[in-house]
Amino acid sequence: MKKDLTSQIKQPEVIYVTAAFLLLVVFNIFLSDVLHEKVHRTGTELARQVYDLNLDPIASKDIIATLVESKGFAMNVTDVPHNFANFIDLEQEVFSYHTVSLRLFHWPSWVVESHLFIFLNLILIGAVYWGFRWWRVLSKKVLVAAAPPVKPIEKQVKPVLKKGELPKPLPHQDLNILYGVPTNYNHLFALFFWKTPFPANLDVDNYFKVVIAKGFGELVNRSVKLLPSGGIAVTLNSVPATEVDKYTKRLHHVVYQACLNYRSDLSRGDIKIGVCNYRTGADQAVVYQLTKSALTLAKQSAWQHIHRLPFGHTQSSMLSDSNEHLFEYIKKKHFMLFFQPLFDLETGEILQHEALIRIRHKSLGLLAARHFIPQMTSKKDVLLLDQTVVTQVQKMLDNESGAMMVSINLHAMNWFNDEFWHWFKAQMQGFDAANKLQFELSEDDYLKQHKQLSSQFACLEKLSAGIVIDNVRSAENLVEYKQLNNVCSIKLAYELIHNIDTNTQQQKVVRQIIAKGNELNFPVYAVGVETRNELATLKNLGVIAAQGFYFAEPLQKLADITPFS
Fold first, then answer.
1. What would the pLDDT profile of 126-145 be if each residue is shown by its tens digit?
2. Where are the domains of the chain?
3. DSSP string of 405-446?
4. Spatial CA neighbour of 205 closest among 165, 170, 233
5. Which of 55, 56, 54, 95 lies closest to 72, judged by CA?
6. Which residues form the signal peptide (predicted)?
7. Residue 181 confidence class, pLDDT cut points 50, 70, 90
8. What angle do the packed helices 114-146 and 2-52 form, to 10 degrees?
9. Is the Cα dihedral 209, 212, 216, 219 positive or negative?
10. Which of 54, 421, 440, 495 has the fewest Cβ atoms surrounding its Cβ within 10 A?
């Protein structure tokens, strides 16, 4: 009797599972078709925008490429990241609107919207499973009612911990000692524009002060100002540099939600925002102009409601367009010296510092070396620059008892400048901390010029000063550095560090460099680390120390930097 009932239950069970599987297949086909239609509409809308903006396919190629990229398409197959190129083929479609036809590449809709596929499939599978369980319960009740009574099965008792016994701890995350280090900060200045005015009886100024205070309560310094044009200006201070885009989008959302309280007919496209992110010391007039430009670009765009212009991107171009002589800033001591710490990835202790100079420009704020060094082309300029850095580091080491190693990046011209080395030898006379100095030299410069630099290397070796081979891209030439007795470390090129967590080829090269460095007794350091994933990957590969904005921004005094334990 029981056997007959069981077979009666199992037969519909197979039918139920088959029907559920077919439902899942049909649902995914339908979902894929809907999403593909969405891609087609997006592509057609993109073609319409190109037509409405009257963009020339050749003259405005960069603008069209930006529009295409913002919608998840690419004009060339090489522009699309090929992380899954061996498994998934790109789709190609032609989108047309009147006289405009765009041939674009994109990933299949199920890849782009994979999160939606997974989410909806999980819901459907959960519903099917829930229904299956209820069906099984009802079926078992029929089976039990018809079956003869059986002896109960003894419960399986789970083992319990003995008195005083502790559960096994989770694996220790030894990188946590570094994760709490302060990050680099930016300030955000934003201008808002909306098409529909607020009611006349609303105090817009105070209203948005309350809105911004509630929406960004974690930020201590923030301000809101009502503009004569009717828009508002918002300033958010001390925003983590890695979250600038996140805060920008959040700012637009907070203001949009606040506007809905009085204008329920508004869409997100009716609220436009222009943003400029900048560092402390930036000229506020330049910040305001950049923000106005960003707002204008946002207002002109039918699809981009938020536009951000970083302040730093304008520094190099403004310097190159001006006739200003930056030599005078160094001569008048309008500069600041910062120190970038290098952290041991095992202990969290600081192994050394890299000296970095910043010019205090009258309108552009603090300028990093990458902005002003290309403008200093004369031998006299770069000589004064490196003399200034060495002198300041020397004074710092005299005042900081027990200070660690400090590395200095000499300008390439000064490595071959006899005037600098004569000055350097005289400057080091009577200086007891010369053994705490390290001078960084690019791998390319060493390989091309090491014979011409033999006297310079000898000078540093006599002073017990170290040499750091910087910007190393492969393990091929590491054995060459054994010719020098005072090469103390290897620094990986930034191009090997950036996005190493997702690039297997970079990981392979770094692993080879570390293996060869261990063989030759050269410690390998990483520079320019910006994300947690990059840091974790580098540590797993065997890098023993690293520096970058992920850990801390450069500080003015060695004493300001505290080891983490």
1. 887 777 777 666 665 554 45
2. 2-114, 184-311, 325-560
3. EEEEE--HHHHT-HHHHHHHHHHHTT-TTGGGEEEEEEHHHH
4. 233
5. 95
6. none
7. very low
8. 170
9. negative
10. 54
What single string gives the DSSP state of each residue in 194-263? Answer: ESSPPPTT--HHHHHHHHHHHHTTT-S-EEEEE-TTS-EEEEEEEEEGGGHHHHHHHHHHHHHHHHHTT-
CA 238 to chain centre: 17
| Exposure of 78 in the CB half-sphere (CA atoms within 13 A) | 0
Percent of the chain whose predicted confidence (pLDDT) is above 70: 73
What would the pLDDT profile of 243-295 be if each residue is shown by its tens digit? 888 898 999 889 888 888 887 777 888 888 999 888 776 667 778 878 888 88
Nearest CA to 255 out of 304, 201, 207, 200 is that of: 207
Q: What is the pTM of this model?
A: 0.48
Nearest to 223 by CA among 189, 259, 249: 189
Beta bridge mates, 524: 490
d(CA 530, CA 459): 36
**CA 480 vs CA 469, 477, 520: distances in Å:** 11, 6, 10
Placement of tokens 């960004």 in the chain: 216
pLDDT tens, position by position, 522-538:
999 998 887 788 888 99
Pick the CATH number of 325-560 from 3.40.50.2300, 3.30.70.20, 3.20.20.450, 1.10.760.10: 3.20.20.450
Percentage of residues in the chain having pLDDT higher than 90: 10
Query: Can you read off the two tokens belonging to residue 276?
Result: 């400029």
- Rounded Cα distance between 464 and 437, Å, is 8
Specify burial of residue 472 (Cβ count, 10 A radius: 0-12, 13-18, 19+): buried
State the Cα–Cα distance between residues 405 and 402, nearest whole angstrom. 10
Residue range 184-311 in CATH 3.30.70.270: yes
Domains 184-311 and 325-560 share a fold: no
Contact of 267 with 181, CB cutoff 8 Å: no
Cα 2 to Cα 132, 149, 318: the distances in Å are: 21, 11, 88
pLDDT of residue 512: 93
Q: How far apart are CA 543 and CA 524, in angstroms?
A: 6
Task: Provide φ and ψ at 295, rounded to 5°.
Answer: -65, -40
**What's the token pair of residue 554?**
């450069």
